Amino acid sequence: KSANPQWREQFDFHYFSDRKDILDIEVWRKDNKKHEELLGTCHVDITALPTKQTNCLELPLEKHPGSLLMLIAVAPCTGVSISDLCVCPLGDPNERHQISQRYCIKNSFRDIKDIGFLQVKVLKAVDLMAADFSGKSDPFCVLELGNDMLQTHTVYKNLNPEWNKVFTFPIKDIHDVLEVTVFDEDGDKPPDFLGKVAIPLLSV
Question: Which family does it belong to (predicted)?
């Protein structure tokens, strides 16, 4: 019920060099649970923004009235990584020792915001639902922690995909829940949902 909404949400997008440079933003309106209407879109060229500073942008919505006020900061990616299983970041004993020292009791007040990190090994899925007419699926896996999101590559024509990837997230709130969702890639169409599991960090 507002024409001037304030969300005050922060999202972290982990930008890698092999991804596109345009941030796409859509604003939607909900009438009820079933009906949604697109109120406008806007696009931000990430490469044109100065790095290591917060950029305040007022973005007009294309072909619609209104604008978005956003703060966008482009900074080096820290604490987040994607790697193959064979080069797991915690596989090195020296690195494990450094991490245990970093989070030991005597250093607990050195950086209050550094709560810790979560490392997830995504190995494989078994007996997925067939989403294609061929009786197969093109599955990929999405991991979400708070407003952080990372995903695996797609394994085509397979109901038992093996990804063998290691994902590392910085933890911002110990009460967050890790959500792992499997989708079927469907070309230019939105991906099909194949399944989901939620893991509270406090249960790990």
Answer: Belongs to the MCTP family.
pLDDT in tens, 28-53: 888 777 788 889 999 998 888 888 88
Q: How far apart are CA 9 and CA 69, in angstroms?
A: 12
- Residue 55 identity (one-letter amino acid): N
* Chain centroid offset of residue 47 CA: 20
Distance (Å, whole) CA 155 – CA 123 = 12
Domains and CATH numbers, the chain: 22-74 (no CATH), 81-203 (2.60.40.150)
Q: Is the dihedral of CA 72, 40, 29, 24 positive or negative?
A: negative
In whole angstroms, give the CA distance from residue 152 to residue 169: 14
Give the global pTM: 0.64
- DSSP run (H or E) holding 93: helix 93-102
* Average pLDDT along the chain: 86
